[in-house]
């Protein structure tokens, strides 16, 4: 640019000099005409350089790739352009980092087992991760009304940003969930994020731990007391077995028999707190259920045993202890047989969350409301000779497998599901 200005000044001085001489007629006019042409070329050059810089800035604003560095004749413009290019590189690097963090955040919020729900004061949903959709049994929705249809009181409490929200709710088919809120401001807009956590497993674990403590205490206290009584009763019985007072002998026999039965009772329940740790291995579900069906389909079992698995791509696998899983299924089939079922169906399938479900359903008598509520509790039984450890033992084994058990009545009979993660 400097040399263009020098040429303009030189031409101007030359024109003045030629006009001062007077004897040259055309040359001064020709030189004078070069001056505006040079000014125009200088202006166009400057304008082109400015347009390049503006285009570069616009490419950054519009997130377009400018490509390689531009070359300018003007040192100042070249320096400005190089600075812009470096700024663009840092800007795009920052964008890449933000996109990577957003991707990571998206993976994390869908991978955690806690449901996350974010919304504004109007109830418009900004975030609803996969665990939340599974817990609330909804798809991709846009408003709180779609998550909690018909519960206007709950929605009003959620939209009251002045008061923190913390509540335990019972969701249909999901059990108890804990909901806690946290408020924040994003881009000047108040938002509330709600965590939704299924606490059924935690409550079940606490309940089972309490039962185990009780059973261990009973075992310790009762066995310590009953063992010497049983021993003494047996000793006394040998001393008085020829005694003519038959009522004394009969009383001692009753003491010995009841002591023995009580010790057997305690031994049965020791199994609930002394289950061996499962030896995990991959188990093919289809072949497992087929083996159970063959094993239980003997002539003396007067019921129809069927296997019904979802049609899919090949075998379904679970991670578990083969002997424990087989024993659980055998016990459930026996329970169905004792419930006067004429048809028992062994089924398997997968849920939307990836869990594998093994179910035993029958057309027997089903569960009463009381039995349905208390069936998994130790000591509870409806059988005259039952011990009350069958389903509670299965519940313990499923807990060791990281899974769960579900019991429900159907239109005809009942269905018990073993849910493996």
UniProtKB/TrEMBL annotation:
<dbReference type="GO" id="GO:0005524">
    <property type="term" value="F:ATP binding"/>
</dbReference>
<dbReference type="GO" id="GO:0004673">
    <property type="term" value="F:protein histidine kinase activity"/>
</dbReference>
<dbReference type="InterPro" id="IPR003594">
    <property type="entry name" value="HATPase_dom"/>
</dbReference>
<keyword id="KW-0808">Transferase</keyword>
<feature type="domain" description="Histidine kinase">
    <location>
        <begin position="217"/>
        <end position="421"/>
    </location>
</feature>
<protein>
    <recommendedName>
        <fullName>histidine kinase</fullName>
        <ecNumber>2.7.13.3</ecNumber>
    </recommendedName>
</protein>
<dbReference type="InterPro" id="IPR004358">
    <property type="entry name" value="Sig_transdc_His_kin-like_C"/>
</dbReference>
<dbReference type="Pfam" id="PF02518">
    <property type="entry name" value="HATPase_c"/>
</dbReference>
<keyword id="KW-0547">Nucleotide-binding</keyword>
<keyword id="KW-0067">ATP-binding</keyword>
<dbReference type="GO" id="GO:0000160">
    <property type="term" value="P:phosphorelay signal transduction system"/>
</dbReference>
<dbReference type="InterPro" id="IPR036890">
    <property type="entry name" value="HATPase_C_sf"/>
</dbReference>
<keyword id="KW-0902">Two-component regulatory system</keyword>
<keyword id="KW-0418">Kinase</keyword>
<dbReference type="InterPro" id="IPR005467">
    <property type="entry name" value="His_kinase_dom"/>
</dbReference>
């Amino acid at each position: 640019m400097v040399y263009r200005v020098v040429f303009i000044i030189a031409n101007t001085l030359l024109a003045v000099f030629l006009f001062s001489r007077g004897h040259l007629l055309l040359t001064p006019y020709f030189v004078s005409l070069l001056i505006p042409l040079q000014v125009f070329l200088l202006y166009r050059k400057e304008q082109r350089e400015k347009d390049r810089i503006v285009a570069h800035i616009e490419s950054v604003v519009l997130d377009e790739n400018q490509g390689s560095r531009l070359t300018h004749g003007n040192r100042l413009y070249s320096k400005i352009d190089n600075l812009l290019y470096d700024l663009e590189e840092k800007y795009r690097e920052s964008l890449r980092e933000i996109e990577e963090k957003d991707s990571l955040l998206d993976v994390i919020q869908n991978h955690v087992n806690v449901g996350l729900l974010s919304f504004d004061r109007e109830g418009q949903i900004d975030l609803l991760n996969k665990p939340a959709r599974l817990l609330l049994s909804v798809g991709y929705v846009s408003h709180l009304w779609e998550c909690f249809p018909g519960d206007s009181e709950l929605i009003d409490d959620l939209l009251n940003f002045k008061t923190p929200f913390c509540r335990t709710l019972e969701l249909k088919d999901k059990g108890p969930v804990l909901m806690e809120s946290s408020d924040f401001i994003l881009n000047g807009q108040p938002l509330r994020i709600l965590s939704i956590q299924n606490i059924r497993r935690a409550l079940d674990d606490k309940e089972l731990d309490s039962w185990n403590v009780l059973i261990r205490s009973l075992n310790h206290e009762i066995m310590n007391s009953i063992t010497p009584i049983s021993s003494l009763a047996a000793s006394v019985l040998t001393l008085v077995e020829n005694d003519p007072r038959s009522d004394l002998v009969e009383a001692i026999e009753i003491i010995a028999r009841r002591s023995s039965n009580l010790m057997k009772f305690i031994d049965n329940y020791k199994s609930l707190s002394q289950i061996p740790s499962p030896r995990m291995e991959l188990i093919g579900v289809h072949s497992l259920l087929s083996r159970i069906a063959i094993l239980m389909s003997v002539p003396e079992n007067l019921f129809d045993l069927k296997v019904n698995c979802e049609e899919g791509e090949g075998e379904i696998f679970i991670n578990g202890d083969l002997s424990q899983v087989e024993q659980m299924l055998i016990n459930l089939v026996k329970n169905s047989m004792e419930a006067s079922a004429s048809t028992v169906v062994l089924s398997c399938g997968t849920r939307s969350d990836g869990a594998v479900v093994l179910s035993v359903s029958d057309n027997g008598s089903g569960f009463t409301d009381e039995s349905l509520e208390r069936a998994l509790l130790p000591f509870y039984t409806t059988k005259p000779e039952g011990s009350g450890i069958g389903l509670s033992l299965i519940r313990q084994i499923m807990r060791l497998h990281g899974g769960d058990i579900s019991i429900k009545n159907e239109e005809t009979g009942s269905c018990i599901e073993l849910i493996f993660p």
